[in-house]
Amino acid sequence: MSTTNTNNQTPPEFAVAVRGYNREQVDEYVATMGRLLDESRRRARTSSASGPRQEPDFALLGSRITRMLQLAEEEAEDRRRKGEQDGAAEVQRARDEADEMRRLGAEELERYQAAVEDAKQEAASILETTRHEAEDLLQRTRRHAEEQAEAIVGRAETEAERITDEAERVATIARDEQE
Q: Same domain for 49 and 103?
């Protein structure tokens, strides 16, 4: 089959296969018609300055081809619509995902901020406890040092009294011996 003669307006003759037309021939013909349609549309777009755009007249190509091209155009429109719907759904899914990520991020930030606040409070509590313990230790150390000092002074006074008493006794004995 030859599909290169596009000026011929008679429908192409497809070889009959076991289950309908030969797929390769039909695919080749549809591809050729698609290219011609694309080319016609391109020319129509470039010549839009010369007047309003007109849709191609498929009736000139024969009823079978007209139906095939109409079906192809409907299929293309359906695919475009489905693509737009799929694209819109994908955009919405991405937005929903972004919203969820923002929500999770905000929750995580709140948890971190709460943990930081808890750590600050715990540090302040530990600092206060340490300060009280240090003051208690300092007071106990002072009391202990004062008690030690008093004990040393008490022993020194006792020793001084003993030495004084001994000195007086020795002096008394020495006086008594001299007399």
A: no
